[in-house]
Known about the structure:
By secondary structure, this protein is an alpha/beta fold. The protein has helices at 37-40, 43-48, 50-63, 71-82, 97-101, 160-168, 220-232; strands at 8-12, 31-32, 35-36, 87-91, 106-108, 111-118, 124-126, 146-150, 172-176, 197-202, 214-217. Strands 5-4-1-9-10-11 form a six-stranded parallel beta sheet, sandwiched between helices. Strand 6 and strand 7 (124-126) form a beta hairpin. Helix 4 packs parallel to helix 7 (220-232). The chain starts with 7 loop residues before the first strand and ends with a helix. The chain binds ligand BV8. Ligand BV8 is lined by residues 13-15, 18-19, 24-26, 38, 41, 92, 94, 110, 150-157, 177-179, 181-183, 185, 202-204, 206, 219-220.
Amino acid sequence: MGAGHPSLVILTGAGISAESGLRTFRASDGLWEEHRIEDVATPEGFERNPELVQRFYNDRRRQLGTVVPNAAHLALAELEKSWRGDFLLVTQNVDDLHDRAGNQSLIHMHGELHKARCQRCGGVFRWEEDLGAMTPCPSCRALGELRPHIVWFGEMPLEMDRIGEALERCGIFLAIGTSGNVYPAAGFVRMVPRTARRIELNLEASQVASAFSEHRSGPATVTVPELVRELLA
Ligand code: BV8
């Protein structure tokens, strides 16, 4: 970590995509078709009612075609391009707005709507259309084994080792648009060095606000470009 160029780790949640028109979990107060998200977004929920769960994700995958990255997404792409130190963007979001904004050093720790995984052969495929109960796996041809490549509640988030390594050595940690309800993401702020700058950008204080040294309140499309300008000055 060069003295002048600290390494930067950024965690984003549903709040950064809110102004693009994607609902946050809190806005839907965790309810979807009178089911709790934690009930449909679980392996048990998928086992119990695959059609319902596939429909939940098909609806959200289709919605991606109707939204675009907002000023906060674009500011983070600019930040990565100009930042002289190490940079890692970790998102809890399963939308593709950070990808479309142009970020490269990007981890979708809860998976992606635009990917499907075969429960039989483990293959992971880019997937843009609906997933059905009998969609054949492009690799092993198994029927009805394709699921969204999404981390459900009770499942292990992706690339946790890589994330942990980056957190332990970062000089600046930003948390943008996340309520701090869902672990292990909500615990990341407690894994960074005590000397690191820890900034929370949100409309309101999150569940883990007390662990941050600085807070910028307001909509992400205002607070993120502002902070990026400061960091790049
Ligand atoms: C695991 C994919 C273990 C699905 C998601 C009891 C206590 C503590 C923990 C647990 C517990 N019981 C169970 C657990 C563990 C559980 C958990 O944390 N549950 C919570 C509900 C209590 N966690 C897990 O199960 C994780 N796995 O623990 O595995 C394990 C260990 C070893 C081996 C195997 C397994 C897996 C969690 C991942 C679940 N999948 N997503 C899908 O998307 O459909 S989580 C899902 O909800 C999202 O991905 C997102 O991460 C989360 C919602 O969080 P946010 O992104 O923060 O969104 P939210 O709406 O909550 O907040 C929005 C924020 O934005 C707000 O603060 C708002 O103010 C702000 N905002 C709004 N608008 C704006 C804005 N800010 C700025 N500008 C704006 N315009």
